[in-house]
Write a structure and sequence with these properties.
This protein is mainly alpha-helical. It is 86% helix and 0% strand.
Length: 326
């Protein structure tokens, strides 16, 4: 089958193989880049913002607890209403940070495991938040209070509230830390996935590139040898021989390979040999024709001479008869 393929078909085959190799390399690169991009998006657009939002909530929760404890500093100061007001101010700022962190994290996509953990956290958070609101109400009472007895009663209440709310704080904080750790792990997994994708893409590109290079090299060698075999020699040499023959030089030297009977150069050599034979036959025929023409010419001259002699003899006979008659 390959021996009957035209040069055009072979070159088209080479081009198709090259395009397929490039397509495979491009596909492997695109697939690797797609996975890397997906991993980068997972890290940059989901996991980092998730960790940021959760840390903001965590830090704000800690700040709220610290503000509550700070209020205990003025337990025996019965004119510390301004200080209690500062405590509430710090708590409002902390709760504002909670809202900002919450808005960053909550809209982001979650895995099933993360979603389940988030629901547990929200339940624990709501319980702790309700307890903290009660503490805030007690601090507001301290701001409004003006008596020593009233402050002592309010501090007795706030100590009880802090003790009751401490386990809720711990439960919410633990779940918040688990959520943060889970998102950090997801980020690490995404980094590893990106590294694996890059490594796989590099491996595929290298393997496909080497295989394609080797295959194209072998195919190129095959095409070159096949074309040279079809031509019977270097294209420039064959072209020179054809030019000489076209100019009428049938004595041109043609160096065809021994046993070559199918190439263009072998066909030219056969054609030149046949032309030599035909020209020889034509020359022989021309020589024979020339000899025959000479013989025909001699015969014609002989006939012409005989005719002249016969005519002279007739005239002499006629003249003799005329004289005898007279």
């Amino acid at each position: 089958m390959t021996s009957t393929m035209t040069v055009r078909a072979k070159l088209i085959l080479l081009l198709v193989i090259a395009i397929l190799a490039l397509a495979l390399i491009g596909g492997a690169s695109w697939n690797g880049m797609r996975k890397i991009t997906r991993a980068a998006d997972e890290i940059g657009r989901v996991r980092l913002p998730s960790v940021q939002g959760l840390l903001m909530v965590n830090e704000a929760q800690t700040a709220i607890r610290s503000a509550n404890r700070w209020a205990l500093t003025w337990e025996n100061n019965y004119t510390a209403q301004g200080n209690f007001s500062e405590v509430l101010k710090r708590k409002r700022e902390a709760w504002s940070n909670v809202d900002r962190g919450w808005k960053i994290y909550e809209p982001l996509p979650q895995t099933p495991e993360e979603e389940k953990l988030w629901k547990q956290f929200v339940n624990e958070w709501d319980a702790w938040k309700a307890g903290d609101q009660a503490i805030t109400a007690t601090i507001e009472g301290l701001i409004a209070n003006t008596t020593e007895a009233g402050q002592k009663a309010l501090f007795a209440r706030i100590y009880k509230q802090l003790d009751e709310n401490a386990p809720r704080f711990k439960a919410a904080e633990d779940l918040l830390n688990k959520l943060s750790d889970l998102n950090v792990q997801y980020g690490k997994d995404a980094v590893n996935a990106g590294d694996d994708a890059a490594s796989q893409a590099n491996t595929v590109v290298i393997i496909v590139g080497l295989m394609a290079t080797l295959f194209l090299l072998l195919l190129g060698i095959f095409i070159i040898r096949s074309v040279l075999k079809q031509l019977g020699g270097d294209p420039a040499y064959v072209s020179g021989v054809l030019t000489e023959v076209a100019n009428g030089n049938l004595a041109v030297r043609i160096d065809a390979s021994t046993g070559d009977t199918t190439s263009m150069l072998a066909a030219i050599q056969t054609m030149v040999g046949k032309l030599h034979t035909i020209i020889g036959e034509v020359r022989t025929a021309a020589d024979h024709l020339s000899n025959a023409s000479g013989q025909v010419s001699a015969t014609a001259q002989s006939l012409s001479q005989s005719s002249s002699e016969q005519a002279a003899s007739v005239e002499e006979t006629t003249a003799s008869m005329e004289q005898m008659s007279a």
